[in-house]
Amino acid sequence: MRAAFGRVMHERDRVSDTPTADAAPTEAVRRRRRTPLLVVGGIVTAALVAGALTIGGAFDGDGDSTVPTARERPADGAPPPATSGTPEPPATVTRITHADVKALTDARTRALRDGDATAFVTGIDPADAELLAAQRRLLANLRLFPFARAEFLPPTGLDVVRAEDAGAYSYDIVIVFSHQLEGIDSEPVAEAYTWTLSRASIDAPVRITKIVGSNPTSHPTRPVRYPAAWDGDELAVVEREHILLAVAATDRARAAAWADRAELAAKRNAEAWHGPAITPRRFAVFVPTKRETVRGVLGALTGSCELVTPARPGGGSMPPVGARVTFDGTDTAFASSTNPDTGIGLIRRELAEAMVAQFARSSLIGGGGRSRWVSEGFAYYLAGDNSYRDAARAELRAGRFGGKLPVDTDLLPKAKGDQAAGAAFHISMLTIRYLAEKYGAAKADEFVVAMYADPASLDAAIKAASGLDREAFEAGWADYVRAEIGG
């Protein structure tokens, strides 16, 4: 069910603008740091982000005020143990408890549901105008998205952290935004933030003095990487049947045309797919144009598709449950075409990878995850993209085509050089096209699904698709490749 707090467009060309946030509360707080003396219950690390999270009762999407907020439960689903009736002795040093953190995250979850900008910034130093403005903008942006579920969660391993005395104390902690985009994610996924929490004295309230992204370097592709679309500037969101497209509010005039092109690309991909049923009903697309935002989310790429895994215990090693597609809105490959029927090759490629994400056994590509050459070959095949034909022809004429199926390292420019890597992209695409032309599109798609499920199953996948062993298949395929690129 669509969440009541998500702002939804029903008119085809309507753009949702970020609503105005309410005023903030006022309180002062001293900020003086102390060294922690004791952490009870385990050190909070980025490993929490990589999947060691206990997702409790996320409120569902009907906006009912009786729906519970985040409740933490043991991994086995048993109810939490009853608390002792013995009162806790008075504190003699400044400390921050799990209950303190949970009160802040629960308040933020309720505020997101209710659209309450004042409650959303609960705990933030009222003197910090910059942080207040950023968090109000975050709430306004989040309210543009149709979440099936959304909640902010404290780490489950934290019990109490203590200072050395009764003075001011600060502590950094990882907070998870567990969320599920309606029709896009099959279950909640996670984005992580690091909050700096401060307490001026034993009896002072806990304050949030800093909020930054928290990307675990050990598994950077598993959660939703910060910054997500909603973490930056004011947004506008446009919806189509198969597309949820977010842009900076300054680009709202172009958003409808971009959404139309992405919708056309999604429909063309769906028409070309003859494999098993596809789970996502639509795709999340972000198109930044601000140079620093583009660099932050894309680096040097013109487009990307990142697969994300569940926000539940062990989720980081589980199959993907969603995808996030991003395009550089300033690049000619995306932005130059004025004809919605042309220039959609880049969009089709990235949406193709999002479309089949559900079949992957891992969000990673290479290194035991998806086979790079199969993933890229399929994307270029589905898009009908011949961008690297000239590079392939040059390599063939130079005698550097050995008649063997690609391997992942062939597609890496740093390993092979730009021309050889480009040729490998084209030859990977021709592999999927050869399967489709000779054995049928359904067999080609089944080959891709088999390789996504088990990248080591190449021989079995070839046998299932063609009825041939690899050597016999390769012989016919090599002749096809030479004929296709040699003219």
TrEMBL record:
<protein>
    <submittedName>
        <fullName>Uncharacterized protein</fullName>
    </submittedName>
</protein>
<keyword id="KW-0472">Membrane</keyword>
<feature type="compositionally biased region" description="Low complexity">
    <location>
        <begin position="17"/>
        <end position="26"/>
    </location>
</feature>
<keyword id="KW-1133">Transmembrane helix</keyword>
<feature type="region of interest" description="Disordered">
    <location>
        <begin position="1"/>
        <end position="29"/>
    </location>
</feature>
<feature type="region of interest" description="Disordered">
    <location>
        <begin position="63"/>
        <end position="92"/>
    </location>
</feature>
<keyword id="KW-0812">Transmembrane</keyword>
<feature type="compositionally biased region" description="Pro residues">
    <location>
        <begin position="77"/>
        <end position="90"/>
    </location>
</feature>
<feature type="transmembrane region" description="Helical">
    <location>
        <begin position="37"/>
        <end position="59"/>
    </location>
</feature>
